[in-house]
Every structure is written in structure tokens, then in C-alpha cells.
Amino acid sequence: MKISILDQAPISSGYSPKEALEASVQLAQSAERLGYTRYWIAEHHDLSGFACSAPEIMLSYIGAKTKNIRIGAGAILLPHYKPYKIAESFNMLATLFPNRVDLGIGRAPGGSAEASMALSDNFLEGVRKMPDKVMELLQFLYNHFPEDHMFAKISASPLPAISPEPWLLGTSRKSALMAAESGTAYAFGQFMSEKDGDDIIKQYRENFIERGIIQKPKVILTVSAICADSTQEAKELALSSMLWKIRAESRVRNEGIPSIEEAKHYFRSLDVEPFNNRNRVIIGNPKEVSEQLKDMKQRYQADEIMIVTIVHRYEDRLRSYELIAKELIK
């Protein structure tokens, strides 16, 4: 079974951004050793709980520190940028690391309204133009504009022997149809979607048009999972991310992923039940988590499962991925 990692580069309380990024490098190296298919890192801006604002820079470093695992952005937030520059950056990565680079494309702001303004002046206009921006980006990646196009005489150099593999990330029917019509692979973010996604993925598959290096529909299902040696331990680890999410939704300034002790105190003091249907997180021991992941892959007919894990201690995050790999990667 193909499984991969989405790393949001979380900063835990008591740790620095540098330590978070160092943990990301170690995670990518461990993912390669364990047999994970790909390692993607996310883009965020002005969010104190996340360390990576420039995936392309981290990927150049991680690519040099690994040998075979596919590396990619999950995702580059295209409304903020001109497609030409993104194509240049990822063609550069694909030249340095042949047949290893994925370009995940998203349309979320990735941060505050002020950060969006500082990045691009008019983020909403970028969102409105997203279909055109995606097509322009793909034309640069494939070096294939019509002869009469104003960009036909330029290239997003250096041109790699094998283009970056394009993925569109999303949680809605609109994103699925955009991926299908653009001819990209599609990563459905189940862990952050209000919808289950069965019909969304079906729409992608039924409407897919081959336009480039992706010859047939290709789907990643991205889920949140926390695995430990025992169910009880996994539940305790999950408390940190649950409190962090509550604070984020309440727009409380987050000082990183809280410790288990802090989270326990919070839920005890309010007499709140932390485990409920609002938490779209798979939590359990290796057998419990692996069975749920296999069931989800079958249900969604996904080609691959991608896992995001948020816990306080980086050692516990790595252990979670190790336990899952032992069950699913044969």
C-alpha cells in the first residue's frame, strides 16, 4: 500500500522554528528509510504554529539530504504568485532531483488577511483567476504554449528531463473539477473537509482530461492520524492537537502545539469531552489505525494515502509514522 507524508512543519510550545524545520528534515529522512512514497511540506504565512513559509527552499535542502523519496509542496498557494516564477522554481528542483519532484497547487490564503495583502495585494482576484493561472503554470512546466501566444518564445528554465508532477489540492467539487479539466493529479484533503468526499473524487475521475504527463486520474486521500503503541497513549498524544485546533478556531494567538500536560489541564478544567465527531483524526494503536486507513483507501478508491500528524513531541510524531509504516508498507 502506498502511503506518504504531509508535513505542516508544526512548531511545538517550547521549541523554536529552527528546531521545527530540523525535525522536518529528520522526518523526511526517516520517511525515506521507512519506505514512504513521498514527502510533502506545506506553505503557511504569519501563523505562529507553523514554520514553513517557503516550501521551495525547504525542498532544496531536503532533496539534498535524501536520495530517492519523492519530495513536493503541499501546496504552493498559487493565487499569491505569478505562474512563471513557480514554474522556474520547481523546474530548478526537478533538474537537481530528477524524477523526484511533485508540485502541489492550492488556492487557500495560508495565513492572515494582512499576510495575503503583503504577499499579493489582491488575493481574491488571484483566486478568481485560478483556472487560468493553473493552465498557464502547466504550459510553462510542459514548455508548450501555442505559437501565437505571448509567452511562446520564453521558457521556465532550466528545463528538466522529467517535469515536476502536478497535483491540485482541494476539498471541494470545484477543486476536483479544476484538477480534472486541467489534467492534473488530485489530492483530496479529507482531514480539513466538511464533506466526506466520495462524490468529489468521483467527479474528478469522471471528468478527467489527459493534457500532460498525468495520463489517467490519480488520487491521494490526505488524512490526519495519530498512532501509538496503545490506544490510550494515542488518545493522550491527540489532546495536544485538539487543544491547538480549538485555539486556532477561536482565533486565539497560538504559541505552538501545547504539551499533553497543558491539554489535559484544559479539558479537565472545562469538563469538556475532547473526542467527538468534530475531530476528523484517526487515533489508535497500529492495528486500529492501519485498518481504518485501509478501509478509507478502499472506500474512496484512492491510489495513495497521505498522512498528516500533529503532536507535541517530534519523537512521538516520528514514532507514529514508524508504527503505521510497519503495518502498511510491505
Automatic annotation (TrEMBL):
Signal peptide residues on this chain, from the entry's feature table: none
Single annotated GO MF: oxidoreductase activity, acting on paired donors, with incorporation or reduction of molecular oxygen
Membrane-spanning residues: none
GO CC terms, sorted: cytosol
Location of the Luciferase-like domain: 1-298
Domain of life where this protein originates: Bacteria
Protein family (similarity comment): To bacterial alkanal monooxygenase alpha and beta chains.
The name this protein goes by in its record: Luciferase
Taxonomic source organism: Cytobacillus oceanisediminis 2691
